[in-house]
Specification:
By secondary structure, this protein is mostly helical. Helix content is 65%, strand content 0%. The protein has 3 helices and no strands. The protein has helices spanning 13-38, 44-56, 61-74. Helix 1 (13-38) runs antiparallel to helix 2 and helix 2 runs antiparallel to helix 3 (61-74). The radius of gyration is 19 Å and the shape is elongated. The termini are far apart.
Length: 82
């Protein structure tokens, strides 16, 4: 009951494939965002992709900085707030 470890099992091939697919999508979104940052593409679409990635990995601080850049470009009045 308490303090008993669950028996470990190897992941099935379907589970492994799901993890690989998720990692592929994540890497491709990061690549797209770096290209958009290099091109200074501060569009609402970029903000949507940023939000999607930050929900899945909120510890990616460079993305938060890029999000701030996009928000400042879309709403310049935000820069003057105290």
């Amino acid at each position: 009951m308490h303090n008993r470890k669950k028996p470990e099992r190897d992941p099935t091939e379907t589970e492994k494939q799901a993890v690989r697919d998720k990692a592929h999508v994540y890497r491709s979104l990061v690549t797209v965002l770096w290209e958009k940052r290099k091109a200074k593409d501060y569009s609402p679409e970029t903000l949507g992709v940023l939000n999607k990635l930050l929900v899945s990995n909120p510890d990616f601080y460079s993305l938060w900085n890029f999000r701030r850049e996009v928000l400042f470009a879309l709403h310049p009045a935000l820069q003057t707030l105290p």
